[in-house]
Specification:
By secondary structure, the chain is α+β, with helices and mostly antiparallel strands. It is built from three helices and six strands, in the order H-E-E-H-E-H-E-E-E.
Length: 213
């Protein structure tokens, strides 16, 4: 009597070619994910930065509504530390719910401006609108009013800057683009007087239109 040979009913194993194809597909997918994930994270950081800027703009506008429509000065005298001014970060603090909005998620080196009473920050104020004579440490010209310009949608108030600046220009622009710090590729976040914010190339803020004054 001949016995039947059991061959099994399961699927035969992968061949070497099939394994190599599967590995190649996995490698391609992994390489795509390695590119996509950082971009996704950066998009999230950029979105958060724009949101931060909008909240700071809202705080600046609330301050103005409480102070005869005048914007908060970049530097103000009267700080508790003798011979030191305090910056707009401190001035707007009562209008800011969370101090984290002062720091861009892509900024790993945020710190307070040296020599002033300040908070760690990633953003600066446009001194053309918020400048006060002698850095605000002596009586002088008042800051601009919210109602001064009719071009609110194209006038920069807040922007991403280098918080490590070691001079008073660290809290507002002295040389305009020299203080702008692009943290999102080649772009930086700019907040405008009307309350909107966007990421732009720094050179786009001076040509074809000067958005600083």
């Amino acid at each position: 009597m001949r016995r039947s040979r059991y061959t099994g009913t399961g699927r035969p194993g992968f061949t070497l070619v099939e394994l190599l194809v599967a590995i190649a597909i996995i490698a391609v997918i992994a390489s795509i994910l390695l590119v996509v994930f950082p971009r996704t994270r950066e998009m999230a950081r950029r979105t958060a930065c724009v949101s931060n800027c909008k909240q700071l703009l809202a705080a600046a506008r609330m301050y103005a509504h409480d102070h005869d429509q005048r914007l908060a000065p970049a530097i103000t005298r009267g700080a508790p530390v003798p011979d030191k001014g305090y910056t707009w970060c401190v001035t707007l603090q009562p209008y800011i719910e969370n101090e984290q909005v002062l720091i861009c998620p892509s900024d790993r080196e945020a710190q307070a401006t040296p020599g002033f009473v300040c908070l760690p920050h990633s953003y600066g104020m446009n001194y053309r609108l918020t400048y006060n004579t002698a850095f605000g440490l002596s009586p002088g010209a008042l800051t601009s009013k919210l109602t001064t310009s009719h071009q609110h949608s194209s006038l920069i108030l807040i922007f991403e800057m280098d918080s490590k600046a070691s001079d008073p220009g660290g809290s507002y622009v002295w040389h305009r683009l020299s203080r702008v710090r692009p943290r999102h590729g080649e772009r930086a976040t700019f907040g405008f007087l009307d309350g909107h914010a966007d990421t732009l190339l720094p050179e786009e803020t001076v040509q074809p239109e000067n958005m600083w004054e």
